[in-house]
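Hi support team,

I've been running sequence recovery on a batch of backbones for a student project. Most finish fine, but this one hangs at about 90% for roughly twenty minutes before it completes. I'm not sure whether the input is malformed or the queue is just slow. I've pasted the structure tokens below so you can try to reproduce it. Let me know if you need the job ID as well.

Thanks,
M.K.
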């Protein structure tokens, strides 16, 4: 299994999930999301156990999802509540359900062992909803590339100069050394570009008369959340958290959810400490990032396609790949640990229905 399963993944933006069921393949499992009458989300395997019609083709009726073929009904836990033309419900008439939770405007789903689906494990490392921060949401984005290519790209400051010349990159950054550190399952790649022109997207808001010091802090949180803290301030202002917060600063946040081995759901948004509550600015930032991420998408889909072919050139590792190397090692370790956990006594004990 090429995925880490025991983790909360974003399945949808909350606003995507209305009165209709929503089909989305996650970690190569067909999932259907729907909302019950009290608005709470539920997630089931998107297959009716009768004739295997995807349940997402059915209808939400109160608290249940009604199959669009013969009308069997399933509640949010996957139990069958109604069978047409008979009163007895067969004992095997149920579908698997997945833990879901709404957090930060997103519906998060747990595809692994349900006994481990602790809300305390939700990602919380952002000033989301805090005073002084304004949010803009990107549209749901689909990328035809493996999620590893995306998280690796988002931990890679060097591509910015070449891929994003019109929005985020400047030529001055190209040859500045980067620093990579790791703390458990989190990797941080940093780069400071000093005394040079601001990136176009920041200069618009900072309106500095001359050069600036610019930072990029690329965080990766296993398995698939990337946060880029970037910004600029007057030359010589220093590296401290307070100094960065006094500058023009943005968190660009990326929640990647593997769809299949070769495709990824991409949810992204930014938080900024300038132009508070200005919706025109929010819209403009979203437009700029749509442009920038379309640039990444084109590159990553081309890389995915090329790597599906027989190897024509042996891949070369460069110094700039230190973050990527650690990232892949960390993912390999987590995936390996989950596969050897399958028989672990702790997991067996925690499984629903297990004797205690
Ligand atoms: S296929 Fe769903 S009820 Fe028959
Ligand atoms: Fe990029």
């Amino acid at each position: 299994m090429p995925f880490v399963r025991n983790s909360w993944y974003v399945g949808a933006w909350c606003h995507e999930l209305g009165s209709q069921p929503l089909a989305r393949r996650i970690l190569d499992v067909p999932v259907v999301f729907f909302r019950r009458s009290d608005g709470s989300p539920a997630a089931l395997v998107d297959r009716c156990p009768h004739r295997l019609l995807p349940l997402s083709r059915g209808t939400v009726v109160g608290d249940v999802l009604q199959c669009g073929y013969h009308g069997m009904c399933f509640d949010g836990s996957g139990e069958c509540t109604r069978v047409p033309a008979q009163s007895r419900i067969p004992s095997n008439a149920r579908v698997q359900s997945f833990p879901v939770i709404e957090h930060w405007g997103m519906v998060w789903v747990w595809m692994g062992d349900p006994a481990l689906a602790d809300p305390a494990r939700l990602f919380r490392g952002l000033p989301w909803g805090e005073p002084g921060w304004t949010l803009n949401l990107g549209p749901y984005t689909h990328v035809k590339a493996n999620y590893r290519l995306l998280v690796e790209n988002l931990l890679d400051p060097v591509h910015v100069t070449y891929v994003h010349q019109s929005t985020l990159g400047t030529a001055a950054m190209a040859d500045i050394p980067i620093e990579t550190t790791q703390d458990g399952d989190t990797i941080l790649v940093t780069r400071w570009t000093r005394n040079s022109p601001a990136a176009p997207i920041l200069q618009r808001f900072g309106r500095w008369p001359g050069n600036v010091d610019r930072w990029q802090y690329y965080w990766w949180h296993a398995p698939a959340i990337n946060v880029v803290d970037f910004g600029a301030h007057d030359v010589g202002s220093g590296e401290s958290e307070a100094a960065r917060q006094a500058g023009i600063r943005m968190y660009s946040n990326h929640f990647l959810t593997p769809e299949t081995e070769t495709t990824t759901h991409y949810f992204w948004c930014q938080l900024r400490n300038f132009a508070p509550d200005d919706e025109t600015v929010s819209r403009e930032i979203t437009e700029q990032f749509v442009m920038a991420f379309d640039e990444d998408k084109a590159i990553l889909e081309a890389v995915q396609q090329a790597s599906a072919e027989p190897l024509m050139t042996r891949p070369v590792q460069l110094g700039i790949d230190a973050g990527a190397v650690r990232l892949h090692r960390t993912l390999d370790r987590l995936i390996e640990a989950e596969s050897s956990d399958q028989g672990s006594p702790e997991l067996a004990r925690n499984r629903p229905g297990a004797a205690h």
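--
Follow-up from support: It reproduced on our side and the slowdown came from queue contention, not your input. The chain has two domains: 8-120, 127-331. No action needed from you.
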